[in-house]
Structures are given as C-alpha cells and as structure tokens.
Amino acid sequence: MLTKKLSFEQAFEKLESITKELEQGSQDLSSTVKLYREAIKLVGYCEKSIVNAEQEIILLEEQTYSQPT
Fold first, then answer.
1. pTM for this structure?
2. CA 13 to CA 53: how far, in whole Å?
3. Do residues 6 and 45 make contact, with C-beta atoms less than 8 angstroms apart?
4. CA proximity to 18, closest of 1, 39, 42
5. CB distance 60 to 21 below 8 Å
6. Cα dist. 44→26, 41, 62 in Å?
7. pLDDT value at position 67?
8. Rounded Cα–Cα distance for residues 7 and 26 (Å)
9. Res 3 pLDDT > 70
10. How many angstroms separate the CA atoms of 40 and 65, rounded?
11. Which DSSP letter does residue 25 get?
12. Separation between Cα atoms, residue 41 and residue 5, nearest integer Å
C-alpha cells in the first residue's frame, strides 16, 4: 500500500480496519505479520501527518500573533 496517496483520514480508517482484523485472530501467521507490517507503516504515516499539521498550526499562530494590531 502506498500511504502517500492516502489522506490522513483514509490511512486512519485502514489502520482501524487492520486492528479489527488482528483482534479477531483468525489469520494465519503469515497474514498476521503482513497486516502488522502494514499497520506499522500506517501508524508512521499518521504520526507524520499529525506532526506536520501541528507544525503548520504553530507557524500560523506565530504569524498571526506576531503581527501588530
């Protein structure tokens, strides 16, 4: 899966779906490892998306509050 083509919301939904599948425990070991690997990638992508959004918000706040009124 290419996470770069997913929005944060799509990646998060996919992560939730994988989590449910893993919790059911009905997959064989190979499938479980594959799902886990995909979940780890999605977690990293979501974390990076959140950090980027936080940085953008901080920048916007700094620009807004540093302007004289």
1. 0.82
2. 18
3. yes
4. 39
5. no
6. 25, 5, 27
7. 74
8. 29
9. no
10. 37
11. T
12. 13
